[in-house]
Amino acid sequence: MAIEASSEQTREPRIRLGMVGGGAGAFIGAVHRIAARIDDQYDLIAGALSASPEKAIASGRDLGLDSSRTYSSYREMAIREAKLKNGIEAVAIVTPNHVHYDAAKEFLKRGIHVICDKPLTSNLADAKKLKKIADESGALFVLTHNYTGYPMVRQAREMIANGELGDIRVVQAEYPQDWLTEAVEQTGQKQAAWRTDPAQSGVGGSTGDIGTHAYNLAAFISGLELDSLAADLDSFVPGRRLDDNAHVMLRFKAKGSEKPAKGMLWCSQVAPGHENGLMVRVYGTKGGLEWTQKDPNYLWYTPFGEPKRLITRGGAGSGAAAGRVTRVPSGHPEGYLEAFATIYTEAAHAINARKKGKAVDKAVVYPTVDDGVKGVAFVEACVASSKKNGAWVKV
């Protein structure tokens, strides 16, 4: 496969990686560390793993980090690592949303590449400022919208770009979960507590946490850009301060002489029976596509007037875009962690090209700071529209 590490004789040195957040008890930090290691492109050598100095030190010890490279603050880490001869080349930021802006800024302004969890920031003003900082820094900024790393998502994107669906008319995305059906944040559950806290999460609840994923994936696959939306947000659980369910109507910008496509997005964290029901459907003048994360190795394709076809990862009909991010033979499950790893490996390709002063291969695809700004703009537009009783809002 194209993204696999090269042989020991010709392979690039592992990229020296640091991490902000992701200490003991943090779910997503462990996911990032696994993803960074799957294709053997990174060495985790430093971390500011918790806002608590004691927890940061203990977490660094558990991960086998040198005590001199375990920091009590991300600013201290950025300053010292930038001065070291063998300092980190990239940093993974895996904190709650409100920390992303300040942490990323400290590393970007010192020329250290940033791999940041989504959403980009907790508000649009900070997102726009961070984009400016990233653009001026010369460092790469990679946003971990990990679902874009699935081979069959790349397959769908390639088919649409090649015109196999014709002019796109309808895009539907949904992301239902059920884990916040009750007020678990009131029990002290860490993941629920910060995600339902406006001070840490921003103005969006389900829209920011999972709606941004559905929106990003719909745009990534379809190649369309959002023009405006009308949203109806709810906080069904009594006392909850952020939305836990959203229905959003979408209007996309026209492409050439085509009539603008329309869309719908549903995200919910109060939908019993749905553990992680991410799905995207796209319909055009020539056919339709359907992909769901619960069966990520399958893509359903229906040319208009013909029987429905199943394209499998690594199977007949699967193209080059899917093939270059496929690791194991067809018929063997390849899932969430591998898709996450694809983002890290695409980032590694870009970082290594930058070190050599070369252009990044056009086949390399990863979400950028621009995608992050669009995601935060989506969330704020949803909130603004819902406050106006579902009025249409430009994004």
TrEMBL record:
Per UniProt, the keywords (alphabetical) are: Plasmid
Q: Does the keyword Acyltransferase apply?
A: no
Query: Which residues does the UniProt record annotate as the domain GFO/IDH/MocA-like oxidoreductase?
Result: 153-290
A Pfam family (short name) is GFO_IDH_MocA
- For the Gfo/Idh/MocA-like oxidoreductase N-terminal domain, which residue ranges apply? 15-142
Q: Give the protein name, as stated in the record.
A: Gfo/Idh/MocA family oxidoreductase
